[in-house]
Design goal:
The complex is a heterotrimer of chains A (about 220), B (about 280) and C (about 300).
Chain A (H helix, E strand, L loop, with lengths): L1 H22 L5 H38 L5 H20 L14 H32 L5 H17 L1 H6 L2 H37 L11
Chain B lengths: L2 H8 L3 H17 L10 H16 L2 E7 L5 H17 L4 E5 L5 H15 L7 E6 L4 H9 L1 H4 L24 E8 L3 H13 L3 E5 L4 H9 L6 E3 H11 L5 H38 L1
Parallel strand pairs in B: 1-2, 1-4, 2-3, 4-5, 5-6
Helix pairs in contact in B: 1-11, 2-11, 4-5, 4-10, 6-8, 10-11
Chain C lengths: L2 H25 L7 H17 L7 H36 L12 H11 L9 H33 L9 H27 L3 H20 L3 H19 L7 H44 L5
The chains are: A mainly alpha (about 220), B alpha/beta (about 280), C mainly alpha (about 300).
């Protein structure tokens, strides 16, 4: 049992990790086929992982309804939204689930007139908050802060057409800021990120990092 | 000015600022004035790639990797690029890495295709969503048909003239990802490096600065950054639409914010001076 | 007037506004009395309810927020079935089309997927470890070569790319001299800055370098940009390099790195503001054009 719970997962991570590193470099048809099959498995597992997330979201709200927590009415709304959309989806305009997906119909209506406006508006609310945050916190307290401020203002004006109307040099300067200092910094950061990814990946493959397996 | 007044200005209720932003945006949208966009070089690069497809007859893969949250910023890009493609008779395969975005891609494809009388299956195909991200890109590169045996309606891809000969990502003339997530990176890291296709990005303003280092190395060919990028593209294809008219409220808010920030700084320094002289 | 009462009046006004506008749009025939018209009205009501959060967190906002999450969950589940589970797993394994061989190998991801779902069970939770080990191990493996290639080899390649690109020899010499001047100055500056520690002197000393760079940029001298990029990458790396004590020349370099970071963060922030405002512009477009029809 201990073997199944502890050693086997680490062995699997090691074996498939090594396969993953080498597989792209072996130009043989059987390896290519194996690569295709393995990425196919990984894709399917990613889909199963989503079900897991869905389960925990719905369970949490079910518990809230069950316990009559404060605001459990919202959880009922969430469940109602889920059930209606889900049922409309599997009804599939009368064809049910073991068939082609209907490309038009009720599900598209729900998507277009509930999901789309809600999602788009949710994040556009941030526009107002970022405006207020800019007014409150954007202060040239120090030299570095002044630099940040100036760069931000130049980009803000230089990127939109009105900057071009004020002076054609503004968009040019803003483009230069993006292409030279910004690109240099991003390059440095990406180098660091890549090193980090490689290091973490090696730790996972060699079983040093095992937090993803959960406790025990 | 008194310190009290200065402090009150510094602590302005944020709802006033909300109101200013709203009024500026609505006002600039209602008043009609001309605000032409001048396309940047990186936007022109995307345009040129689509033109090259027109010459070579190769297929464009348009990956619309966004959901409704990114739609106002990114859909105008998809629309403009699609219009350009259909206008120049370039075949398009659409897809998405975002499960919430499947219908967005479908709608924008159907609407633009209807404008030009383009037909499903002959001029464009929509694959829809598949999970996997990095592994999906590799899967498509290794064996396109294994990753996408069917289109989003459940029809065999071998039955369409556009897709029947596509065996790998390298068979596409240009891959363009319109992304509000890290999908743009995934296409580059796991796709364009190994399967050697030309690759361009349409990114939200939040992510666009991250794309710049890859433009210089040629790892990414062409970038549309935010709604401004879409507006510039609309100018290039001479079909001003939502992005182009959006530039008026967009510019107005930017100017308002710049003024607000400058004003805030002036008040801040006045207040600091008043505080220091008060202490002395 | 107490705050509670004021809030109630405001929300009653909002509700009246939504209902009233919709009624008016219907009666005046601006919106059709069918599913599309009803959809647009509903979408507008959802949009305005969400914006009511700007005034204060409230019931309307929370209702719409939860509805949104629920609908999203329902939608995604059906997408996963029709796009993945059915065509890639169930169909090829259990209901293959005539003439197409059954894909027995798909049993492996099916079993691993079921094991993954046992994550929620206390007794059989360990089974999910096998699936997670596969996902993490395999992904880590394919990530290593791809990340090195994309972010390190290709990127460094450009960072140390060619400085001189002019074809005309006179230009080439002029550019070379200019670059030598800039670089020489920067190096001297850097060494000198490491010796003294007076902020205003530091700032003053940076000024000529900045002027030289500006000249280079506005005359479009090609090498200048490469030098700045190189300088930026190096100083940023020094800043992030914590293994060396940040003293003397290292400290100066890392300070310069900070300035590069600030410019980049500022530029990114400018872009972020732009992005958020675009979302707002998009919603206003919906309200003014698609819903109220006051714009064409």
């Amino acid at each position: 049992m201990i073997f199944l719970k502890r050693q086997l997962p680490l062995m699997i991570a090691f074996v498939f990790g090594m396969i993953g590193i080498m597989i792209g470099y072996v130009p043989h048809q059987s390896m290519e086929d194996m690569y295709t099959e393995l990425v196919g498995w990984d894709r399917l597992l990613a889909a199963f992982a989503l079900l897991l997330g869905m389960y925990s979201l719905l369970r949490m709200h079910f518990k809230r309804i069950e316990r009559r927590d404060s605001g459990f009415g919202y959880s009922i709304v969430l469940w109602t939204g889920f059930l209606i959309t889900f049922l409309v989806g599997i009804y599939n305009e009368g064809d049910w689930i073991f068939a082609q997906r209907a490309s038009h119909g009720m599900l598209n209506w729900i998507y277009d007139y509930i999901f789309k406006p809600a999602g788009a508006t949710m994040f556009s609310v941030l526009a107002f908050f970022i405006a207020s945050a800019a007014y409150r916190t954007f202060r040239a307290r120090t030299g570095s802060a002044a630099l940040l401020l100036v760069a931000a203002l130049v980009v803000m004006v230089g990127q939109v057409p009105i900057g071009d109307m004020i002076s054609p040099k503004l968009p040019e300067l803003s483009t230069w800021l993006m292409e030279i200092p910004n690109a240099a910094v991003k390059r440095g950061i990406f180098l660091g990120v890549a090193l980090g990814v490689v290091a973490t990946s090696l730790r996972i493959i060699f079983g040093v990092e095992r937090a993803y397996l959960g406790g025990e | 000015m008194k310190r009290q007044t200065l402090n009150r200005l510094l602590d302005l209720d944020r709802r006033w600022i909300f109101l200013f932003v709203l009024v500026a945006a609505i006002f600039a949208r209602l008043v009609d004035f001309d605000l032409p966009s001048r396309p940047k070089r990186i936007v022109k690069d995307v345009y040129d790639q689509i033109e090259l497809l027109h010459e070579s007859g190769e297929v464009l893969l348009l990956s619309m990797d966004y959901d409704p949250a990114g739609k106002p910023e990114l859909e105008p890009m998809s629309r403009a690029v699609l219009r350009h493609a259909f206008m120049r008779d370039v075949k398009v395969v659409g897809m998405t890495h975002n499960p919430h975005g499947q219908n967005l891609g479908q709608t924008v494809l159907e609407e633009t295709a209807a404008e030009f009388g383009s037909k499903y299956g002959e001029d464009y195909v929509y694959l829809g969503y598949k999970a996997g991200f990095a592994t999906l890109v590799i899967n498509m590169g290794q064996d396109f048909y294994d990753a996408f045996p069917l289109d989003f309606k459940g029809v065999d891809l071998k039955s369409y003239p556009i897709t029947k000969d596509i065996g790998s990502l390298s068979d596409f003339g240009y891959v363009f990802s319109v992304a509000s997530t890290a999908a743009w990176e995934v296409w580059m890291v796991f796709g364009s490096e190994k399967y050697r296709f030309k690759y361009g990005v349409g990114a939200t303003g939040v992510m666009a600065p991250d794309v710049y280092p890859f433009l210089q190395t040629g790892q990414i060919k062409g970038l549309l950054g935010g709604l401004v990028g879409a507006a510039e593209y609309e100018t290039l294809i001479d079909r001003p639409d939502r992005a182009a008219v959006g530039m008026r409220p967009q510019s107005a808010i930017h100017v308002l914010l710049v003024l607000l920030v400058l004003f805030g700084n002036v008040i801040f320094f006045l207040e600091r001076r008043a505080r220091r002289s008060g202490r002395a | 007037m107490n705050e509670h009462l004021r809030d109630r009046i405001l929300f009653a006004a909002l509700a009246t506004l939504i209902l009233g506008s919709n009624a008016w749009l219907l009666i005046s025939g601006r919106l059709p009395a069918d599913w599309t018209g009803f959809g647009i009205m509903l979408a507008a009501a959802i949009t305005l309810s969400m914006y009511s959060f700007l005034y204060k967190d409230n019931v309307l906002f929370k209702l719409v927020e939860h509805l949104y999450i629920g609908v999203a969950a329902g939608y995604v589940t059906t997408v996963y079935w029709f796009n993945i589970f059915w065509p890639d797993l169930i169909k090829p394994l259990f209901f293959p089309d005539p003439g197409v061989p059954r894909r027995w190998l798909r049993l492996v991801p099916l079993l691993m997927g079921i094991a993954l779902l046992f994550r929620v069970s206390r007794r059989f939770g360990w089974m999910s470890r096998i699936s997670f080990a596969f996902i993490m191990g395999f992904y880590s493996g394919i990530a290593i070569p791809n990340y090195i290639e994309t972010y390190m080899i290709e990127q460094l390649h450009f960072t140390v790319g060619p400085l001189f690109v002019s074809a005309d020899p006179v230009h080439l010499w002029l550019e070379g001299a200019f670059l030598a001047a800039v670089l020489g100055y920067m190096i001297l500056d850097w060494l000198w800055l490491s010796l003294i520690n007076k902020p205003w002197l530091n700032a003053l000393a940076l000024l000529p370098a900045a002027v030289l760079l500006f000249i280079g940029i506005f005359w479009h001298i090609p090498g200048v940009s490469s030098v700045v990029v190189l300088f930026g990458v190096l100083t940023v790396l020094v800043y992030f390099f914590f293994s060396v004590e940040q003293k003397g020349p290292v400290a100066t370099a890392s300070k310069l790195g900070v300035n590069f970071l600030m410019v980049s963060f500022g530029a990114s922030f400018g872009y972020t503001i732009m992005a958020r405002m675009s979302l707002l512009v998009g919603r206003l477009e919906f309200l003014l054009r698609d819903w109220l029809g006051v714009l064409q």
